[in-house]
Here is the input.
Amino acid sequence: MIPQRTAISGSGSAAVVRLRMAALIDVNACAPPRLRAIATRLAGRPAGIIGTAAEARRAASFGVNVARSCLPPLGAMVLSGSVLRGAFGRLPSDGSLLTVGQRAHEAARLLGVSPAFGTRAAALDDALPDPIDSLPRDELRAAWGVDASERVCLLLASPAASCDARMALDIAGRTSMLGHPVVLIVHPSSPGAARAERLASAAGGAWRLAFDARVDDPELLASAADVAIAIDLRIGRGGPGATGRDSGISAFALAFARGITAMIPDGDSWGARLAARAGIPVVVASNTPAASMPDMVPAERIFDPRRPNVAAVALHTILSAASR
Here is the structure.
């Protein structure tokens, strides 16, 4: 496919030809399965990356055609209009621009472009990428230090920056106290990971966790997982325009407030859906998108994140049934 181009006049007869971006992507908001799906959707068309050079390389490693990347100064989107314009040039104004992640959505708004979809990229949620093979079970469990008496619980990181490692460890610990020793597998970049590690250390081995950056690609680890849990870090959130007021002063205030604060990316349903497709029983918090999919997650496996005992009982029930 031939990418769109836009010509920018230069001095004399010279002209600088720049690629017209088909998408803006906040890589921090994307787990590997979503990056693979985005690459398939774009089919080689150029994408702009909101993030670091390392994040741009990560997107490229999953097949995204990265044209440019831009890290907002001081992380403040609202102060980045000129920088974004210089990095990405003129964006499509026909509503075709794909934005993935809150920072990408806000970047499009700052540049005066209406994106095709909102921050949750709902239009992508109906088509998971093709299945991938799991890594060998014994190899994975040995790497995590899991013995034969222990069970493995994946903390679904979709993306890694959206889940709550501390709360997940609390639930895993309660499950262990009910009679099933659990090792929680956590992405090292998950919020609360350092605190969870300290809590596990203080528990003297009673609460166990292991770090693995591949947990945001759950099908890779499916052979070694007994159960999985999804917990969003934030509760009661809404995406851009959630109030229904998307113009005038209210829109400016919304963009300004979001632009000067660190953005926790929205979690999506993909981690739970991919785990379920790979045959892993999934327990989900009621504040996660997967909780709205009753055909995939039975009601008894959906818990209020303010009631960790309910989640522990759900995990215990699954593990007990598997042990019979």
The first strand starts at residue 5 and ends at 9.
